[in-house]
Design a protein that fits this description.
Layout lengths: L4 H33 L2 H22 L10 H17 L1 H13 L1 H6 L6 H28 L8 H28 L3 H17 L12 H9 L1 H14 L3 H30 L1
C-alpha cells in the first residue's frame, strides 16, 4: 500500500462518519417533530403568550410609549419576534431534561448512532418549530397593523437572523437541560436568564427612556442587537450597524455553547 492511499482512506472515513452523523441527527430531528405533532396543544399555547404580548402592548401600553419616527406597532414587532424565538428555545432545555428523566438518552446510547446526533437533532427540531411560530406571529402582527417598510428580501434576512439567534440560544439551553434534574427545574432555570435579557433591552421601549447605567447594558447586550437588526431590516435604516455586531455575538456564543453542551452530555452519559 502506497503512502498516498492512507490519507485518501482517512478522508473517505471522515466523510462516511460525517454522513452518518448527519443522518442520525436527521432521524432524531424527525422523532422530535413527530412528538410535537402528537401534542398540538404545546404549539398552540407557545403561540398564545406572544399573541397576548402583541395585543397587550399594541392596544394597552402602545399609546403611552413614544417611538419617534416609527409607529409603535412596527417598533414592537421586532421585539416580539425575538422574544418569541427565545422563549421557544426553552423547549430544548425541557425536551432534553425529559429525555434524560425517562431514560431515553440511555436507549440512544445503546444504538449504533453518533452521540452528537441527540443534541443536533433536538436543536434542529426546535429551530423548525420556531419557524412555524414566526409565521403565526407574523400573521398576527399584520392583523394589528404591522407593516414591512423595506422589501421581502430584507424581511427574509431578518427571519434568518432571528432563527440563527434562536439556534444559538437552543444550544445554551441544551446545557441547562442536561444540568437540570427534571424538566420542571430546567424551565425554572431558564426564566431568570430570559427575563432580564428580554425586558432590559430595546424590545418594548427605546433605550433612551432608561437610566444611564441600564441604558448602557441594554444597548450593548446581544438581545438588543438582534432586535435592532430585525427592526432595521423590516423598517429601514443602517442595517450593517446592527446586523454585523449581532452576527458576531451569535457566532461567539455558538462557539462557546456547543462545546459546553457536548461536554455536559458526555459527562452525564
Amino acid at each position: 500500500m502506497t503512502p498516498s492511499v492512507l490519507p485518501e482512506a482517512a478522508v473517505q472515513m471522515k466523510r462516511s462518519r460525517l454522513r452518518r452523523t448527519i443522518g442520525d441527527a436527521m432521524v432524531v430531528t424527525e422523532r422530535n417533530l413527530i412528538a410535537n405533532l402528537r401534542i398540538p396543544e404545546s404549539l398552540f399555547f407557545s403561540s398564545v403568550q406572544p399573541i397576548m404580548f402583541v395585543l397587550l402592548f399594541r392596544y394597552v401600553f402602545g399609546g403611552a410609549i413614544a417611538t419617534p419616527g416609527m409607529n409603535y406597532v412596527d417598533y414592537l414587532m421586532a421585539g416580539i419576534f425575538v422574544q418569541t424565538v427565545m422563549f421557544g428555545s426553552i423547549n430544548t432545555s425541557i425536551g432534553l431534561a425529559e429525555d434524560l428523566q425517562k431514560g431515553l438518552i440511555e436507549r440512544f446510547r445503546s444504538l449504533p448512532m453518533a452521540r452528537s446526533a441527540v443534541l443536533a437533532g433536538r436543536t434542529t427540531s426546535d429551530l423548525l418549530r420556531n419557524v412555524v411560530v414566526i409565521v403565526i406571529i407574523s400573521l398576527v402582527g399584520f392583523a394589528v397593523g404591522f407593516r414591512i417598510h423595506t422589501n421581502a428580501f430584507a424581511f427574509l434576512g431578518s427571519v434568518l437572523v432571528m432563527l440563527f439567534f434562536a439556534y444559538v440560544i437552543s444550544w445554551g439551553f441544551a446545557y441547562i437541560g442536561l444540568a437540570a434534574p427534571n424538566s420542571e427545574v430546567a424551565q425554572l432555570m431558564a426564566f431568570p436568564i430570559l427575563f432580564p435579557l428580554t425586558f432590559a433591552s430595546t424590545a418594548f421601549v427605546p433605550s433612551s427612556t432608561m437610566p444611564g447605567w441600564l441604558r448602557a447594558f441594554a444597548e450593548h447586550q446581544p438581545v438588543s442587537l438582534v432586535i435592532n437588526s430585525v427592526r432595521a431590516l423590516t423598517q429601514g435604516g443602517p442595517t450593517a450597524r446592527w446586523v454585523i455586531p449581532a452576527l458576531i455575538w451569535c457566532t461567539g456564543m455558538l462557539i462557546v455553547f456547543v462545546p459546553l453542551a457536548v461536554w455536559r452530555y458526555r459527562r452525564i452519559t
